[in-house]
Specification:
With about 600 residues, this protein is α+β, with helices and mostly antiparallel strands. The protein has 18 helices and 24 strands. A hairpin with a 3-residue loop joins β18 and β19. It binds adenosine-5'-diphosphate and magnesium ion.
């Protein structure tokens, strides 16, 4: 039988390798920036068009390449960074596999301009799908400029798999931030579709963090410094009150390399124990210096994971250092976060004067004496003080001291405790500030108020964004919000969609936005929460072919604006929810697919009374 094994042609091998190195535009950004740093650049500029789908260009003032090196740089396993296997253990550079440029050139149109200081003229090279299409001598500044256009032009499946510009751009910003934070002594700038998003001058780490995240970041930082034999830590954690709903601002750099470590992340979270509301994440920007021989950086090209020889010690030191810093800056736990709503003062007792329960002791009481049979107990608390705790089970006569109290469920009171009161059918009442209960023919329906409202708002926003009929309320004074630079650029991308819901933006700067109108029903105090949630939702968007920005937007707005469980609702509000819910297209499940209501039939109840 004939031999059947063949060597793959280079361009095919490169395309396959590219699949590993280049997952999305952000991967290209990372590789190009790292090459520029390895080339000793002091100023690096990143230009991006359409979230990198059209163009990614990195211009550096590094050492440049000779003509031969420029050509070689596109060959697979061509690297100037290691010569023998031993070099692997003394790496000071970012890249070393010599795969990035070859991979990128296999799946895009690449144009390189490069010149070394010692040379009079530089080189221009064009490569399309691994094939050199031109080579020229040109006049160009010292350093290298690499432009990557039409990523995945020859792999349509990959190109189609890319997510929306907003999401891809978010990934680019993530990579950019990781790189710039690891290298505060290099000047960086970044432009997206011609507008300048970052202009970061070299400085110390604190300045870099502040310039990267903008605005008020400086006030939020608590320094962390610790030097031990195995580990030196320096950097900052964010004050607890600035914790985020999203995991956005969490950065570990080990020996100047961004890494992800769920284990060390846990060390930080646990140092914040008791300081954060649930589902909030602390921000941190921490540099860890360790002996390079004590770590194993996974050499998979895109992984950012790392193994430490002694993880547990690292964990303990890190946790202690962060705790110590939080303590030093007298950030002490606030105990009433996330309190159990059931322990709150019930209903409208808030603000009411509390009176000390009076205890009358009937000293003559003898439990065995018949004469005392009316007094069922020898201590008799007076009703005023704590009967209120049993609101709903108590008759009204005892509540004179609390005439301002409105009962949570006086219907239940009347129907159960007062047979004479006419039973009002179809009236709603609220249970535990969480469920709305309504009688139906077969029995009753129990509705989760939060989920019901989320469904109502979702359908409402979805309709408004599609037919463009939202109404805004004009603000008396424009509302200024400062957000992270990346948050702002995401909102900027989305602003047209947001305007269809009723937001009116007047200005966008790199650090703040100004609004002059809000959707009807949205309060000024809601806005920052709404945007936080939205940014969080975009960041965590799950890949989905049916991705639609108005859907995401409507879901996100509904989630942040829906009335929460724990809120007491007036009768009209309860009725509104019930009526509107059942006129929704999909009243059974919330936008996130959770059950909205359940019914309890009379015959089910009957069975319980058998
Ligand atoms: P690696 O970075 O792993 O060596 P790359 O494919 O990223 O592999 O780059 C190949 C080689 O091209 C590098 O080793 C370096 O010599 C050269 N090179 C790439 N980018 C630049 C740049 N911006 N300036 C100077 N040399 C560069
Ligand atoms: Mg490289």
């Amino acid at each position: 039988m004939a031999d059947i094994i063949q060597l793959l042609p280079d361009h095919v091998a490169n395309q396959i390798a590219a699949g590993e190195v280049v997952q999305r535009p952000a991967s290209v950004v990372k590789e190009l920036l790292e090459n520029a740093i390895d080339a000793g650049a002091t100023t690096i500029k990143l230009l991006v068009k359409n979230a990198g789908k059209v163009l990614i260009q990195v211009i550096d003032d590094g050492k440049g390449m000779s003509v031969t090196d420029a050509r070689l740089s596109f060959e697979r396993h061509a690297t100037s960074k290691i010569k023998v296997a031993d070099d692997l253990f003394n790496l000071n550079t970012k890249g070393f596999r010599g795969e990035a440029l070859a991979s990128i050139a296999a799946i895009a149109h690449v144009e390189m301009k490069t010149k070394q200081v010692s040379d009079e003229l530089g080189t221009l090279l064009s490569v399309e799908g691994s094939i050199f299409t031109s080579q020229d001598v040109i006049a160009t500044p010292n350093g290298t400029s690499i432009a990557v256009k039409n990523l995945f032009f020859n792999i349509p499946a990959r190109r189609n798999f890319l997510k929306s510009d907003t999401v891809e751009f978010r990934h680019i910003i993530d990579e950019f931030q990781r790189v710039v934070l690891a290298h505060p002594s290099i000047n960086f700038s970044m432009y997206h579709n011609g507008s300048n998003l970052f202009n970061l001058l070299k400085g110390n780490f604190r300045q870099r963090v502040v310039n990267t995240f903008g605005g008020k970041t400086n006030e939020k930082l608590v320094p962390v410094e610790e030097t031990t034999e195995v580990l030196a830590i320096s950097g900052f954690v964010g004050k607890p009150e600035y914790s985020k709903k999203s995991r956005g601002e969490q950065f570990f750099f080990v020996n100047n390399r961004f890494i992800k470590s769920p284990y060390l992340n846990h060390a930080i979270s646990s140092a914040f124990d008791g300081l954060l509301q649930s589902r909030r994440h602390p921000s941190y920007f921490l540099n860890l210096q360790v002996d390079p021989r004590s770590i194993d950086i996974n050499i998979h090209p895109t992984k950012t994971e790392i193994k430490f020889d002694d993880e547990q010690t690292m964990y303990a030191i890190l946790r202690a250092a962060v705790k110590h810093s939080l303590g030093q800056f007298s950030i002490t736990p606030v105990l009433d976060f996330e309190r159990d709503k059931n322990l709150d003062t019930p209903y409208q007792f808030n603000g009411a004067q509390a009176s000390i329960p009076k205890v009358e002791v009937d000293r003559a009481f003898n439990p065995f004496s018949k004469a005392n049979s009316e007094t069922s107990s020898y201590t008799k608390p007076t009703s005023e003080s704590w009967e209120g705790l049993y609101v709903g089970l108590e008759s009204k006569s005892n509540t004179d001291n609390f005439s301002q109290v409105s009962y949570e469920s006086d219907e239940m009171t009347s129907s159960i405790f007062d047979e004479s009161t006419e039973r009002k059918v179809h009236k709603t009442f609220q249970l535990h500030n969480k469920y709305i209960i309504n009688t139906i023919k077969s029995g009753m329906v129990v509705i989760d108020q939060n989920r019901a409202h989320e469904r109502i708002l979702y359908e409402d926003y979805l309709r408004k964004t599609t037919v463009n009929e939202a109404v805004s309320q004009q603000l008396l004074f424009p509302l200024q919000l400062s957000l992270s630079t990346s948050g702002i650029s995401m909102l900027k991308e989305l602003h047209e969609a947001l305007e269809t819901t009723g937001f009116v933006f007047s200005t966008f700067t790199d650090e703040s936005i100004e609004l002059t109108g809000l959707p009807v029903g949205v309060k000024e105090s809601d806005v920052s929460n709404v945007f936080d949630q939205l940014i969080h939702d975009i960041e965590n968007e799950v890949p989905d072919v049916n991705f639609s920005i108005s859907d995401l937007l409507s879901k996100s707005l509904a989630k942040s604006l829906a009335i929460k469980n724990g809120k007491k609702l007036e009768r009209q509000e309860q009725e509104y929810i019930v009526n509107t819910l059942f006129s929704c297209k999909e009243p059974t499940v919330s936008p996130s697919n959770k059950t909205i209501f359940t019914t309890i039939k009379v015959d089910e109840l009957d069975k319980k009374f058998n």
